[in-house]
Predict the 3D structure of the following.
Amino acid sequence: MTKKDLMYEGKGKKLFKTDDENLLISEFKDDLTAFNAEKKGNESGKGALNCKISTEIFHLLEKNGIKTHLVDRISDTEQLVKKCKIIPIEVIVRNVATGSIVKRLGLEDGKILPFALVEFCLKDDALGDPFINDDHCLILNLVQDETQIQEIKNIAKKINSILTPFFDSKNLRLIDFKIELGLTKDNELVLADEISPDSCRFWDKFSNEKLDKDRFRQDLGNVKVAYEEVLKRILN
Ligand code: 5GP
């Protein structure tokens, strides 16, 4: 597969065209950003760690019936993926209250939620990724219809129900995560982007130590060590 022109550069990845119009190469960057890119950093080797972690998780999800854009990992930092049109909604699933929901709703940090909460944010950096509801999704034409909203929520909940016990078996608590979905050329809804410590919160099951991007957000140090630990536990 030949890597061709850069098609898109995001905060965490670059997307390149290939000689197959339906396939792209997704290159994971070492850059770290937080608070809508107001805070910027770089951690050498982070891209390779996220590429490996995300590949493992996507393979696990595929085995459990979730359709994804992933074809395969083709190098330390690159995946071959199916080209898809990203639905500009960040779908967030929360099992435990922390982060923005604590600030927004005054919930106690660390409170276990009675059921998995699915939230939507508009994927728009200029607007600061605001929270939106089902009606906003329809009015903004982000989705085809209400059925598609339900489909998105069902996929998000199914991913949570696969990943929560998986990470529990690795002594990690899956606190929350963000996913993005896309539509392939055949109009198939697939999981796209990545699932990694950049887009999830993982706490150690026993100590509640944070093993994710909150180490960067909150200046806790040892960012790469935490990501290495997540990969090690996934592979174990
Ligand atoms: P919160 O809304 O508490 O900031 O984030 C909830 C979850 O979604 C966290 O796991 C966080 O990492 C993820 N998340 C929210 N917004 C973004 C984003 O713009 N990029 C990434 N990579 N993850 C996000």
